[in-house]
């Protein structure tokens, strides 16, 4: 009885994910033809840069006197898969281990050269609460390398990276591995509080009579499980619901959202087919095949998108399964070093990690406006304007959320009324914005997305020849983050 | 006045002369005109009715200008007619509700074919007519039962309670809910209304195109209920049960609930025409009753007492300190932090502080259980409370309210201690129920900053705050105290200083008379039923237990000293003896009654009965009939109230009525002591008092102002 109950509840909880999956089935059939070799991503690495739109602009460097130059040596990620697919039987640290091993392989880093490991995760597997340590041990890092886990919702791996930057800037470390993992195929579902209490008392009960009376106190209602929700603890509102309200507040139409979602999938498909997603490593899943591609990219037609019913605010909402990011399994990792150390070890760094900020706002009505608040702040810190940025990588939680942020950034009234600024910062030009797809299409394993964004900026700067990149993301709790990244001179 | 969007006529209601929309005669005429135009416009396939006012859909009807049963009946009939047309509209009409949708507003909305409401905290739906002694007179008693079922409809109309959006959706009062929006490219309020309109227009289009159905999905429970309600014997039983419940609660003193039952019953059992006729006739009758006048008077009085008549204070109180974490102190702290004002709660002992802290937490936590607060909001509110044993941070307090033990020397000590640590602008308010403020202020270096703030227990439930000014209290101090009280959500009367101020002074003689009656052998239960039978929500004996016998004894003695034999009647020694035996009322488990037992039936405390026997007096038969006892109690209350007005303690009869009803539970159906004198007739009251005076003495001597009113029937307290 209780089992079927759990199943029903589970089905309801993840119905939005399955809706997303059913949409993608047809796309997969078409895409199967061009699945290429396992080493696809590494091959692409050696390819010449085909185009450089922003060639030789030669802007000033953002190096600051007295501040150490910190560089991104390289970054990798496992393929991002829809939860419940090929990774279904793994544990979070398995995925994290795959990313860490991939980073070691990619960089040829000696295992004992790492001073510290910081890893992010959001939904915690209780058995591996310090998933950083478990994954590092399994990945063959020296057991002398300490590791800790951080959590900050969707910007957890951003937090891992900036923690690494802090450690290096403070002179405590020279080489730090940062990353993040999210595993939504299995989440901790707990007994109800009442049941837990009874079970804990059972441990302490001394006599058989006491035990029996405790067992007798269990009621059917105690058996209903407690599910983790993608909902704000403070407001009990699910994120999709908040996104729908945000979209409405900024007058973002369903059509705009579907168009943006389609753009994300189309660009991601193009990037995947064009071999741009070179941060993806292939991963032999134990007991399964080798996985080497993201499996959530599904460029449908506008008609298909328009057919979907709203997923959160029913029946008149605008956020659907197709214009939201889907539940994803995945892990990412980056190697961050001081510039001297990297050069001394013979690396050619990919980018400088420059200024970054964290912001936070009202978790109810401004839950997903992090990029709007963080962008002007970090640009000011770096002495840049929006026009100086060549490459934008924003986390796409929901198409409606991105569109709302773009509208907010474009509004003087919003800047003046809510941000205490004189003028708007401006919206990024779309030709520079998430041009290799984004979380909507590539997937969004909560704590792994940050490293993907940073690595993608570094790669896009190299490909496109730009100098500055900007990463921005929103996160649960009404928090946000932005970072300025500078291309490493080629 | 209306705009056509995609074949949908959008009617935006906005009364430019008022902050809220009311169904005035003018508005009704305009609505008829607009609706006729819409019905005549072939391009219009459906309509949306929405208000442009941020916190208000339609807040009710306006009955100010009608003074005859006949004209009120016809007013009701006009309303019925208009809404009947709306109900039979050839095109679907969607009511888009944001903010209060009450009375006539709700009746309008339920006549429409479809209702969408925002989930805003300001959105409330309800039929509050019964609280004004009226009934929903524009088809409400006929439509509501059909829409939400008999039990829910009775509950709404007989209690007048506000229904919040979630509940409204569940019970079938609205079809769809729309979430309020946060900041966007416009202010949240403005954009939320726009959004509501957009959604409503979509639904209107859907209804016109038959893509949206008006039928609500009915659950199994609903279907069963509908079936059961279809059985005449079941309905009959419901009418009977509801009737007897109303009689039990209202003691038959309020005509409106009974008329509402009659209207519903007629409509369901005898058909629409009979139902509408009964509704309009009863509406006309009810509006002319003294009960309705009394209740409407209280409503207007309450509105007046929710305004600051002393101007804007120089400084806002941003930090409040409360001394004493007892029942009162903690209650004051709770209603203050609840409104976002940082509050220090200081006590002298850790136990006292912990108890007070727990009281505040429990008060807020109970709200989370009722879902009016989230646990997160509760935590945020609690974070504004600083419980402490010392005077830390008092240098930043803008106001201190002391609620320490009622003893002048302790109060003096507190004044001195506090004045040593507070900044010069800080106001010192004292929460006392009887000690004259000027006596407390005598210890102050800055009497212009001293004021009395008399809260009523339990503070988070009782609406009244009695503010007492001495002749030294500055106007700004008063303005600030009123501002704080209003922020705490209180209904405020501002009275002059003197022993017992206004409220306690009125209550004391009535309680003295209650003791007298007890001594004469009227048992506590009989006394309670006599007083509740007159309309008091709580019986006199129970009230004494709730207030505390010790407090009653204290007050009786103090005021007895101050006012002499006028406060006599009962023997104070009865109360003192009870206190001595530990019968301090509910708080000690025993008073007139025994508390603590789980059974609902209260038991009379035999110990108290023994004491009463030892103080037994013979009842003078000429003035001891049930009605005599009732009028002995009430006339002493009323006479003292009138005397307070005569002496200038009370600034006006309105505040006197509000104070008596909201603070002491004076029968609301009588509208307060002053309205009671007006409606009962001062001459008749004086006659009765003269009779009592003969038997008992000068505690029944009517005061001069009452005599003046008795002599000249044109003199009235309320115009």
From TrEMBL, chain A:
Gene Ontology CC terms: endoplasmic reticulum; mitochondrial fatty acid beta-oxidation multienzyme complex; mitochondrial inner membrane; mitochondrial outer membrane
InterPro entries, alphabetized: Thiolase, Thiolase-like, Thiolase_acyl_enz_int_AS, Thiolase_AS, Thiolase_C, Thiolase_CS, Thiolase_N
GO molecular function terms attached to this record: acetyl-CoA C-acyltransferase activity; acetyl-CoA C-myristoyltransferase activity
Annotated compartments: Endoplasmic reticulum; Mitochondrion inner membrane; Mitochondrion outer membrane
Keyword Methyltransferase: no
Similarity remark: Belongs to the thiolase-like superfamily. Thiolase family.
Subunit description: Heterotetramer of 2 alpha/HADHA and 2 beta/HADHB subunits; forms the mitochondrial trifunctional enzyme. Also purified as higher order heterooligomers including a 4 alpha/HADHA and 4 beta/HADHB heterooligomer which physiological significance remains unclear. The mitochondrial trifunctional enzyme interacts with MTLN. Interacts with RSAD2/viperin.
Official protein name in the record: Trifunctional enzyme subunit beta, mitochondrial
Origin species: Cyprinus carpio
UniProtKB/TrEMBL annotation, chain B:
EC number: 1.1.1.211, 4.2.1.17
Domain 3-hydroxyacyl-CoA dehydrogenase NAD binding: 319-497
UniProt keyword list: Acetylation, Fatty acid metabolism, Lipid metabolism, Lyase, Membrane, Methylation, Mitochondrion, Mitochondrion inner membrane, Multifunctional enzyme, NAD, Oxidoreductase, Phosphoprotein, Transferase, Transit peptide
Subcellular location: Mitochondrion inner membrane
UniProt catalytic activity: (3S)-hydroxyoctanoyl-CoA + NAD(+) = 3-oxooctanoyl-CoA + NADH + H(+); 1'-[1,2-di-(9Z,12Z-octadecadienoyl)-sn-glycero-3-phospho]-3'-[1-(9Z,12Z-octadecadienoyl)-sn-glycero-3-phospho]-glycerol + (9Z,12Z)-octadecadienoyl-CoA = 1',3'-bis-[1,2-di-(9Z,12Z-octadecadienoyl)-sn-glycero-3-phospho]-glycerol + CoA; a 4-saturated-(3S)-3-hydroxyacyl-CoA = a (3E)-enoyl-CoA + H2O; (3S)-hydroxyoctanoyl-CoA = (2E)-octenoyl-CoA + H2O
One BP annotation, GO: fatty acid beta-oxidation
Entries under InterPro entries matching the protein: 3-OHacyl-CoA_DH_NAD-bd, 3HC_DH_C, 6-PGluconate_DH-like_C_sf, ClpP/crotonase-like_dom_sf, Enoyl-CoA_hyd/isom_CS, Enoyl-CoA_hydra/iso, Fa_ox_alpha_mit, FA_oxidation_alpha_subunit
Subunit structure: Heterotetramer of 2 alpha/HADHA and 2 beta/HADHB subunits; forms the mitochondrial trifunctional enzyme. Also purified as higher order heterooligomers including a 4 alpha/HADHA and 4 beta/HADHB heterooligomer which physiological significance remains unclear. The mitochondrial trifunctional enzyme interacts with MTLN.
Protein name per UniProt: Trifunctional enzyme subunit alpha, mitochondrial
Taxonomic classification: Eukaryota, Metazoa, Chordata, Craniata, Vertebrata
């Amino acid at each position: 009885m209780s089992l079927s109950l759990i199943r029903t509840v589970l089905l309801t909880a993840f119905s939005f994910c399955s809706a997303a999956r059913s949409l993608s089935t047809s796309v997969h059939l078409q895409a199967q033809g061009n699945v290429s070799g396992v080493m696809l991503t590494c091959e692409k690495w050696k390819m010449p840069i085909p185009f450089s739109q922003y060639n030789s602009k030669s802007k000033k460097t953002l190096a600051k006197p007295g501040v150490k130059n910190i560089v991104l040596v390289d970054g990798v990620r496992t393929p991002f898969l829809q939860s419940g697919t090929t990774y279904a039987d793994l544990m979070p640290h398995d995925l994290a281990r795959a990313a860490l091993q991939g980073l070691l392989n990619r960089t040829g880093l000696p295992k004992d050269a790492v001073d510290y490991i910081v890893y992010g995760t959001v939904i915690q597997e209780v058995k591996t609460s310090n998933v950083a340590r478990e994954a590092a041990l399994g990945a063959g890092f020296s057991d002398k390398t300490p590791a800790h886990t951080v959590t900050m919702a969707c910007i957890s791996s951003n937090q891992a990276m900036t923690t690494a930057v802090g450690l290096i800037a403070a002179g405590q470390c020279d080489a730090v591995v940062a990353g993040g993992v999210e595993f939504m195929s299995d989440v901790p579902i707990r007994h109800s509080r009442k049941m837990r209490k009874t079970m804990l008392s059972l441990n302490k009960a001394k006599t058989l009579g006491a035990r029996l009376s405790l067992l007798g106190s269990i009621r059917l209602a105690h058996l209903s499980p407690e599910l983790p929700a993608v909902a704000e603890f403070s407001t009990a509102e699910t994120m999709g619901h908040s996104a729908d309200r945000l979209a409405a507040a900024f007058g973002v139409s369903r059509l705009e959202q579907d168009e943006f979602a389609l753009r994300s999938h189309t660009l991601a498909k193009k990037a995947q087919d064009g071999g741009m997603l070179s941060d993806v490593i292939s991963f032999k899943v134990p007991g399964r095949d080798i996985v080497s591609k993201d499996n959530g990219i599904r460029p449908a037609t506008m008609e298909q998108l328009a057919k979907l019913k709203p997923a959160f605010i029913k029946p008149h909402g605008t956020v659907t399964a197709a214009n939201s990011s889907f539940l994803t399994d995945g892990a990412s990792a980056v190697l961050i070093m001081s510039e001297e150390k990297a050069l001394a070890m013979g690396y050619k760094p990919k980018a400088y990690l420059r200024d970054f900020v964290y912001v936070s706002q009202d978790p109810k009505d401004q839950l997903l406006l992090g990029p709007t608040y963080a962008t002007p702040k970090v640009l000011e810190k770096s002495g840049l304007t929006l026009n100086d940025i060549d490459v934008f990588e924003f986390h796409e939680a929901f198409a409606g959320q991105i569109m709302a942020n773009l509208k907010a950034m474009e509004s003087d009234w919003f800047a003046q009324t809510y941000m205490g600024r004189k003028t708007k910062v401006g919206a990024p030009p779309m030709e520079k914005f998430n041009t290799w797809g984004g979380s909507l299409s590539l997937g969004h394993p909560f704590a792994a997305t940050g490293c993907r964004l940073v690595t993608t900026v570094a790669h896009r700067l190299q490909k496109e020849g730009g100098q500055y990149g900007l990463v921005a993301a929103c996160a649960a709790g009404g928090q946000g983050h932005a970072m300025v990244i500078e291309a490493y001179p080629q | 006045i209306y705009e056509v969007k995609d074949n949908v006529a959008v009617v935006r209601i906005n009364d430019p002369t008022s902050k809220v929309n009311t169904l005035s005669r003018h508005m009704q005429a305009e609505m008829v005109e607009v609706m006729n135009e819409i019905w005549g416009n072939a391009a219009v396939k459906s309509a949306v009715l929405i208000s442009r006012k941020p916190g208000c859909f339609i807040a009710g009807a306006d009955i100010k200008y009608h003074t005859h049963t006949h004209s009120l009946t016809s007013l009701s009939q006009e309303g019925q007619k208009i809404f009947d047309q709306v109900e039979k509209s050839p095109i679907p009409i969607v009511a888009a509700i944001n903010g209060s949708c009450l009375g006539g507003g709700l009746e309008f909305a339920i006549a429409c074919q479809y209702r969408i409401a925002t989930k805003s905290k300001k959105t409330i739906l309800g039929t509050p007519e019964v609280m004004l002694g009226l009934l929903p007179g524009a088809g409400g008693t006929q439509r509501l039962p059909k829409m939400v079922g008999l039990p829910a409809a009775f509950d709404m109309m007989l209690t007048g309670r506000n229904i919040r959006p979630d509940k409204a959706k569940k019970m079938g009062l609205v079809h769809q809910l729309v979430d309020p929006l946060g900041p966007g490219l416009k202010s949240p309020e403005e954009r939320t209304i726009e959004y509501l309109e957009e959604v409503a227009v979509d639904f209107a289009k859907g209804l016109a195109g038959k893509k949206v159905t008006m039928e609500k999905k009915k659950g199994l429970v609903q279907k069963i209920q509908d079936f059961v309600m279809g059985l005449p014997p079941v309905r009959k039983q419901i009418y009977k049960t509801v009737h007897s419940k109303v009689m039990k609660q209202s003691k038959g003193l309020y005509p409106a609930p009974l008329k509402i039952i009659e209207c519903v019953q007629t409509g369901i059992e005898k058909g629409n025409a009979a139902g509408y006729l009964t509704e309009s006739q009863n509406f006309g009758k009810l509006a002319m009753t003294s009960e309705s006048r009394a209740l409407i008077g209280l409503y207007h009085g309450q509105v007046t007492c929710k305004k600051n008549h002393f101007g804007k204070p120089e400084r806002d109180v941003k930090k409040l300190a409360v001394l004493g974490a007892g029942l009162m102190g903690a209650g004051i702290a709770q209603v203050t932090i609840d409104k976002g004002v940082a509050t220090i709660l200081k006590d002298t002992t850790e136990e006292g502080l912990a108890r007070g802290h727990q009281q505040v937490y429990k008060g807020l936590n109970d709200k989370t259980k009722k879902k009016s607060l989230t646990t997160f909001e509760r935590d945020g509110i609690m974070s504004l409370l600083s419980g402490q044993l010392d005077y830390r941070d008092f240098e930043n307090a803008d106001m201190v309210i002391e609620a320490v033990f009622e003893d002048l020397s302790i109060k003096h000590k507190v004044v001195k201690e506090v004045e040593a640590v507070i900044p010069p602008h800080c106001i010192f308010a004292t929460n006392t129920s009887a000690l004259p403020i000027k006596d407390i202020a005598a210890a102050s270096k800055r009497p212009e900053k001293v004021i009395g703030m008399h809260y009523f227990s339990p503070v988070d439930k009782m609406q009244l705050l009695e503010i007492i000014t001495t002749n030294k209290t500055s106007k700004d101090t008063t303005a600030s105290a009123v501002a704080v009280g209003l922020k705490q959500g209180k209904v405020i009367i501002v009275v002059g200083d003197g022993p017992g101020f206004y409220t306690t002074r009125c209550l004391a003689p009535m309680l003295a008379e209650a003791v007298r009656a007890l001594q004469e052998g009227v048992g506590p239960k009989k006394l309670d039923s006599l007083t509740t039978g007159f309309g008091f929500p709580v019986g006199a004996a129970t009230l004494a237990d709730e207030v505390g016998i010790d407090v009653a004894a204290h007050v009786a003695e103090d005021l007895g000293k101050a006012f002499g034999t006028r406060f006599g009647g009962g023997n104070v020694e009865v109360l003192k003896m009870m206190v001595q035996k530990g019968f301090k009322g509910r708080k000690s488990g025993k008073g007139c009654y025994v508390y603590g037992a789980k059974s609902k039936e209260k038991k009379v405390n035999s110990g108290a009965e023994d004491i009463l026997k030892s103080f037994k007096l013979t009842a003078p038969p000429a003035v001891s009939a049930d009605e005599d006892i009732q009028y002995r109690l009430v006339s002493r209350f009323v006479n003292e109230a009138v005397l307070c007005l005569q002496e200038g303690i009370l600034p006006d009869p309105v505040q006197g009525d509000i104070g008596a009803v909201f603070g002491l539970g004076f029968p609301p159906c009588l509208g307060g002591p002053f309205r009671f004198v007006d409606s009962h007739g001062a001459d008749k009251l004086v006659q009765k008092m003269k009779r009592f005076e003969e038997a008992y003495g000068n505690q029944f001597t009517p005061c001069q102002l009452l005599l003046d009113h008795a002599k000249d029937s044109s003199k009235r307290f309320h115009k």
